[in-house]
Amino acid sequence: MLKGIPAILSPELLKRLCEMGHSDRVLIADGNFPSHSVGANAHVIRMDGHGVCEILDGILQLFPLDTYTESPVKIMEKVPGDQVATPIWDEFKTIVTKYDSREKAIGSIERFAFYEEAKTCYLIIATSEKALYGNIMLQKGVV
Question: What SUPFAM superfamilies does the record point to (predicted)?
């Protein structure tokens, strides 16, 4: 056991987060995201039974966001015409704002472009999150 480390962060996850360098990205994916096929070249860690928000909050307690880019946090845009509610985005904003005060810290990417960006992530965390469009990508900054 270590002091000051959020309990939700497993030793494997801590190892992978520590391996990441400046500008590397981690995707915390909802339960519908094709984590293993999109993440064929990434490290994929399964965190079944957990939601994206609790993992996001745990990671941001230790993980510096990139200050060299305007929006180091990205979410997937809704498909045009999709009327599904996305209350999880408000939760994302609340959590990110605790750790980064920039107004534009969170940006968005068109769905298929998001999948392409996800293919270049160093790490993908597969969760059991049920919220639709509940995917969030973080770009690591400098400690």
Answer: RbsD-like
Which pTM value belongs to this model? 0.97
Measured CA to CA, the distance from residue 28 to residue 52 in angstroms comes to 6
DSSP letter string over 21-54? -TT-EEEEE-TTS-HHHHTTTSEEEEETT--HHH
Range of the domain at 97: 23-139
Is 7's pLDDT higher than 90? Answer: yes
* Residues 6 or more apart whose Cβ sits within 8 Å of residue 131: 30, 51, 52, 86, 87, 88
- Alpha-carbon radius of gyration of the chain: 14
Asked if pLDDT for residue 1 goes beyond 90, the answer is no
Q: How far is 36 from 22, CA to CA, in rounded Å?
A: 24
Specify the DSSP element, H or E, that contains 76. strand 73-76
By annotation, the residues acting in catalysis are 22, 66, 115
Per-residue confidence at 10, pLDDT binned at 50, 70, 90?
A: very high
Q: Which amino acid does the sequence have at 36?
A: H
- pLDDT, averaged across the chain: 97
pLDDT over 80 (residue 91): yes
